[in-house]
Amino acid sequence: MKRTILTLAAAAATLFAGAALADAKTDSILLNLKVKYPATTFTGVRATPLQGIYEVQMGRNLAYVDESGRTFLFGSMYDMEARSDLTAARKTELGIQDAPAPQQQRAEAPPIKWSDLPMADAMVRVIGKGERKLALFSDPDCPFCRQLERELEKLDNVTIYTFLYPLASLHPGAPAKSENIWCAGEKARNKVWIDQMIGGKTPPAAKACATPLERNVALGDSLNVRGTPTMFTSDGRRISGAMPAARIDAWLNAGK
């Protein structure tokens, strides 16, 4: 009996130690994410059935990340044996509801009509002759958008129309930064934008003005923009995510 009690106590101690190590690991990952991406709201991290992959909650969004916090996965995780959507179940558990899709199915991502874009609501940047056209939906606190800006600077012969598209649920400080960028005035907007995205300088406070931010968010939803950065060509094609300048250049030329 004594040996049985000692064995049970040892097993319990091992379980508690394992749980403590697991908690320490997720706490460490959460802290690392907050340090790496201070503009993003991270509200929780927990282990998943995939070794080395952790679930991370960002406000009302779920994603999956490796231990380093560098690589993210967005989408659903499935248990094929149980035939269950683990991500959907977790969202239900957390009370997260996906935004309703518009009448047109998001998955189809049809070409847009360039002439329907309200260019007065965009910042305009001309590089070289500016003959090629590119519309960009971008968030000032999106790390992938910042990576993309460095690549866009390497392009030539393109006019970039940037629609400020702050994702408040993911980046709480983005709306205020977007407002200060827009209200800096037509001549200064691009410099303030580049200073923020490439130079890491927070946009200085600007005198309040009328902004297109609400219209841009509504426009992005109507165009099935599901995240930032998202780009469109003048012939209506779209592409999302940060990518090398060479790929963007080839993508722009593919419509000729």
Give, in spatial order, the strands making up the sheet with the most strands: 7-9-8-10-11
Return the string of H and E elements.
Answer: HEEEEEEHEEHEHHHEEH
Structural class: alpha+beta
The main pleated sheet reads as: 5 strands, mixed
Q: What is the mean pLDDT? A: 85
What gyration radius follows from the Cα positions, in whole Å? 22 Å
State the separation between the terminal residues, measured CA to CA: 83 Å
Tally of strands: 11
The percentage of residues in β strands lies in 15-25%
Index terms:
256 residues, alpha+beta, 7 helices, 19% strand, globular
What would your notes on this structure say?
Helices cover 36% and strands 19% of the residues. The protein is an alpha+beta fold. Strands 7-9-8-10-11 form a five-stranded mixed β-sheet.
Short overview:
This protein is of the alpha+beta class and 256 residues long. The chain is 36% helix and 19% strand.
Question: Topology, pairings included?
Answer:
Blueprint: H1 2-36, E1 44-47, E2 53-58, E3 61-66, E4 72-73, E5 78-79, E6 84-85, H2 86-94, E7 123-127, E8 132-138, H3 143-152, E9 158-164, H4 174-182, H5 189-197, H6 213-222, E10 230-233, E11 238-240, H7 245-253
Parallel strand pairs: 8-9
Antiparallel strand pairs: 1-2, 2-3, 3-4, 5-6, 7-9, 8-10, 10-11
